[in-house]
Structure formats: C-alpha cells, structure tokens
TrEMBL record:
SUPFAM superfamilies: Ribulose-phoshate binding barrel. It comes from Afifella marina DSM 2698. Belongs to the TrpF family. This is N-(5'-phosphoribosyl)anthranilate isomerase. Its EC number is 5.3.1.24.
C-alpha cells in the first residue's frame, strides 16, 4: 500500500485525472459469440475474456473459445477465466486455448495459484472480492505468485457466481492502494460510470462484463464501443492534463 497520492485526492469529479502517461487497458469479459469478438476488436479493447464456469450465463466450452479466439489472437490479449477449477480443465485450456492469462476467480490460495502458474506455464490474474479495506490486504499474499490482480466487488449474498454480477464496491477503499503489480478495476462498471471510476482510482486497467450487455450473457456491441470510448476519452483528458502539469511534477526530460 502506498501513501496518499501527491496531487489529487479521491474526492474528484469525473473530469479529474492523476498524472499518468500510459493508456488504460480495457478488458471485455464473458464473450460468447463471434459478433462479441468483432465488437471488442472494433472498439479497441486490449483484452478479451472467456468464462469457463458452468453456472455462468457466459460459460462456454474450451473448443468454442478456441474458435472464437482465432481472429483475435495476436491482436488482443486472451484471458481464460476459471473458478476453483480442477487440473484437467486448466490443462485443456492451457493446451488448446493457449491464453495469455488465466484469471482465477474463486478462492484459490496463493499456493494453488503458484502451482497453476508453474505446472501449466500460465501467467495468472488473481481476482479478489472487495467489500472492505481488509480485503485489499490479501493482495500482498499473492505478490510473487501472480502477474496481476483483479479487484471485483464481493458477490451479493444470493449470487450464484463470484463475478459478473454488475455489483460495484466503494472505490474510496482504494485510496493509497499500491500492490506493486498491475491490476484491473472491476465490478459494476459501465459506460456511464467508467469516467468517474477512473478519476477516483487511476486504475491502470479496467474490466467489464454485465455493464456492456443487454441481458445476462448477451453482449451489446454499442455498449462495448461506448465503454471503450469513455475510457479513451478519460485517457485523452489526462494526457492533456499531463502536458499542463507543473514543472515540479513533470517527468525528467532526457538530456539531448
Ligand atoms: O462473468 C461471469 O459470469 C463470471 C462467472 C464466474 C466468475 C467470474 C465471472 N466474471 C468475472 C469477470 O471478470 C467480470 O468481468 C467481473 O466480475 C465484472 O463483472 P461485472 O460487474 O458484471 O462487470
């Protein structure tokens, strides 16, 4: 965890931005149809996610994901999402889909996470359910065992799945959050609130599923485009702000 950011607090409007030079990465999760892939690629997403969890309306077979991923491979990162999966499913995913990341969205321990990474040679994203500040402390347990974290809302009590519920958590909990690795902000994001979410958290990457759907499991290409455009608009505003930042905060200029 780092201390408060030097220039801005979390009490920010949707127009605010921290000084950051890099584009925010966007992951669209839970794609099930070729049109979904087309929409994510056309919108300029960075990552696409496939869900392998039978209770999800977005769940699909590995074979189906292999077909869907074909036109996207090399153009965006491919993420395979599992929930406390057994080795045989992970083996099939690693062998056939060859994802860029496996997202572990269950209660996988740091030890199990490390085991999956080394046994299947997969880069890992560990999802953490956030409901209170103490939940963020779990991030340090995974340091060195995962490449990235994904912060999602804790599922509602009656939920039948641990993610993809359209539930947000209190972004103010992230004040000072610095896990020492890349992370995705997730949970209840959509085209209306993503600007405010980025202004509040300066997340380096964001992830969305139900916020770009017309019904559970049915992606809406227009909402995908609107979501990515809102992220890019935020980045463009921040790039302008960075140009205008005070000299004392500017990055060092390389000597000619
Ligand atoms: O999407 C699902 O159905 C799902 C099922 C089981 C575990 C995780 C799942 N989704 C994980 C994601 O990465 C979602 O994008 C994330 O939870 C945000 O979802 P939403 O709040 O619907 O945008």
């Amino acid at each position: 965890m780092r201390g408060p950011k030097p220039l801005l607090t979390l009490d920010k409007s949707a127009d605010s931005c921290d000084w950051k030079a890099m584009e925010t990465e966007v992951k669209i999760c839970g794609l099930t149809k070729p049109e979904d892939i087309d929409a994510a690629l056309a919108a300029g997403a960075d990552w696409i996610g496939f869900v392998f969890f039978a209770k999800s309306p977005r769940s699909l077979s590995v074979a189906r994901a292999v077909d869907l991923a074909a036109p996207a491979r090399g153009r965006v990162g491919i993420v395979a999402l599992t929930v406390d999966a057994q080795d045989d499913l992970i083996d099939e995913i690693a062998r056939d889909l060859k994802p860029d990341f496996i997202q572990l969205h269950g209660s996988e321990t740091p030890e199990r996470t490390a085991e999956i990474r080394s046994r299947f040679h997969l880069r890992t994203v560990k999802a953490l359910g956030i409901g209170e500040r103490a939940d963020l402390d779990k991030a340090s347990l995974y340091a060195g065992h995962v490449e990235r974290l994904l912060l999602d809302a804790r599922p509602p009590k009656d939920a039948t799945r641990p993610g993809g519920n359209g539930a947000a958590f209190d972004w103010r909990l992230l004040e000072g959050f610095e896990p020492g690795m890349a992370w995705f902000l997730s949970g209840g994001l959509n085209g209306d609130n993503i600007g405010a979410a980025l202004a509040a958290t300066s997340a380096p990457a964001v992830d969305v599923s139900s916020g770009v759907e017309r019904a559970p499991g049915e992606k809406d290409p227009a909402e995908i485009a609107r979501f990515v455009a809102a992220v890019r608009a935020h980045d463009a505003r921040c790039e302008g702000a960075e140009d205008a930042r005070p000299a004392a905060n500017a990055a060092p200029v390389a000597a000619a």
